[in-house]
Amino acid sequence: MHEMSVALAVIDQVETAAAQTGDVGAVRSVRLRVGELAGVVPDSLAFCFELACAGTLLEGAELVLEPVPGRARCTPCAHEWAVGMPPRLNCPECNGPDAELLSGRELQIAAVQWADGDPTRAPAREPISEEC
Fold first, then answer.
1. pTM recorded for the entire structure
2. Domain containing 36 — which CATH number?
3. What is the C-alpha separation between 28 and 59, in angstroms, rounded?
4. In terms of domains, do 65 and 52 share one?
């Protein structure tokens, strides 16, 4: 289950941001943007996140998952569509196979709320590696 690796990577990035911010005693919540094509099972990630947070700055933090639908654009005709699951990558308008994936593979920390109540945008960081 790679969701545990993802949870550990999120915790590491939030703890690093907390250290850079300074004077952070705890984290209230973490909001993640999770694309429908990212290969992450939301319930498994939430379970792993809760387990992995024990004994860290994030213990008791709420994990808020923001789903991002998969969308594609046909290169020849510029039609855009929701790809769904399993993903439909042929254009429903012209049936062309040349499509650009616009969204749906995201796995990013969107925001962190420190225990003092101030919502803070997560520092600009690379998305969480899919190799976790």
1. 0.79
2. 3.30.2320.50
3. 9
4. yes
> How far are the Cα atoms of 33, 84, 131 from residue 73, in angstroms, in the given order?
21, 13, 26
Q: What is the DSSP string of the chain?
A: -THHHHHHHHHHHHHHHHHHH-----EEEEEEEEETTS---HHHHHHHHHHHHTTSTTTTPEEEEEEE--EEEETTT--EEE-TTTT--S-TTT--S-EEEEES--EEEEEEEETTS-EEEPPS-PPPPTT-
Q: Same domain for 25 and 79? A: no
* 53, 92: one domain: no
Measured CA to CA, the distance from residue 107 to residue 57 in angstroms comes to 21
- pLDDT 10s per residue in the chain (132 long)? 589 999 999 999 999 999 998 888 899 999 999 999 999 999 999 999 999 999 999 999 999 999 999 999 999 999 999 999 889 999 999 999 999 999 999 999 999 999 875 555 444 445 555 444
